[in-house]
Amino acid sequence: MRKVVVMNPKGGSGKTTLATNLAAYYANAGGKVVLMDYDPQGSSARWIAARPADRPSIDLVKAFERSTRTTRSWQLHTSLDATHVIVDTPAGTTRETLEEFTRDADAVVIPVLPSEIDIHAASRCIGDLLLCAKIKPRDGRIGVVANRVKKNTRVYQALLRFLKALEIPFITSLRDAQAYVHAAGLGQGIFELPQYRVKTDVESWQPLLTWLDSEQLTSKSESAAS
Q1: CA distances from 195 to 53, 86, 113, 201, 209 (A)
Q2: Four-residue CA torsion sign, 197, 201, 207, 212
Q3: What's the CA gap between 197 and 157, in Å, rounded?
Q4: CA distance 29 to 160
Q5: Which of 45, 77, 113, 143 could form a disulfide with 171 if both were Cys (CB 3.0 to 4.6 A apart)?
Q6: In this structure, which CATH number among 3.40.50.300, 2.60.120.380, 2.40.30.10, 3.40.309.10 belongs to the domain 2-214?
Q7: Would you list the domain boundaries of the chain?
């Protein structure tokens, strides 16, 4: 089973967009996918509710709900045959909750928008992951994705300079495209839309998918777990 955590303490960075599209990709690839929604807004849960019955199914865990009738571990229980668990974390993540979100994670993906505020928030998130969650840079389990970018802008160039200065991988850039809004409203991922309409966007995901499925990342996460 592969566990991928999508994290950024700042709201509006595109965590749900990444989480739902990853879930849709792996489901269409034949995986048994669990989407774990920690966000009290329940955006991923609403996406699942809107998902057409003829699309590959994705199991949902409403991690944002708390129940006094069951233990927390049972609430977060996933099926033993799950191949992928995608975790959509909430905004305002504290240092104290980082360990719960990232426990046993094979990869942590941090979406960053091209703005000074978002760059600062991402920098703080990365620092907290390294210090509080004790994820080591050499483990290679943290990757950054530039989200909703318009490449011919000065702020995007500033974002690139920031990301390239980090000691963790800068994976890819996803453009600001209406295809994501359209797919979200349908309960689908862009991989499930007519490909002639989303060819450019699908291609921009390939570096992220390659990184997540790489043997190098697998071996590093296994070493960290041991």
Answers
A1: 20, 24, 25, 9, 17
A2: negative
A3: 27
A4: 31
A5: 143
A6: 3.40.50.300
A7: 2-214
Portion of the chain with pLDDT greater than 90, in percent: 44
What does R_g of the chain's alpha carbons equal in angstroms?
Answer: 17
Tens of pLDDT, residues 2-60: 999 999 878 888 999 999 999 999 999 999 999 999 988 999 999 999 999 999 999 99
104 dihedral zone (left: phi>0; alpha: psi -120 to 50; beta): left
Distance, in Å, from the CA atom of 137 to the CA atom of 52, rounded to the nearest integer, reads 40
73 Cβ contact partners less than 8 Å away, ≥ 6 residues apart = none
CA–CA dist 27, 218 (Å, integer): 20
Burial class, 129, CB count within 10 angstroms (exposed 0-12 / middle 13-18 / buried 19+): buried
Amino acid 109: pLDDT: 94
- 160, 146 in Cβ contact below 8 A? yes
Whole-angstrom distance, CA of residue 176 vs CA of residue 113: 10
- Mean pLDDT for the chain overall: 85
What is the structure's pLDDT at 24? 97
